[in-house]
Here is the input.
Amino acid sequence: MGEHTMENVMDTVISTSFLAAPPPQVAERIRKQPECRLLWAVLQEGVETYMKYATATSRRGKRLFREAEDWIMQDDPTWLCSFVSICHILGLDPGYVRLGLRRWRAGLDLANVKGVAYKEAA
Here is the structure.
């Protein structure tokens, strides 16, 4: 893996570039095993949905977020397309990816609280 530490992967995961292109070590797996491209697309879609609907207020948006969050947080290594299985196949640590997503969401929550406080003070 070379210089690709989990911190580098996590920086990529919580940025929008994660949605645009896989981290280098995942890209290498995709190059060597083309079937990993499909698994990357499933992971990408799940993370994108989680991030897109994290602050949803509509019933549909809340449902989509809840479904994505449930998929990401579920520990089911028996199903090929589970979050845990996909992460393992792609060489990612599912716990670390989850931690990054939780931190990202906590940052959104903090920004929303600050935004509300700012509006109230104005």
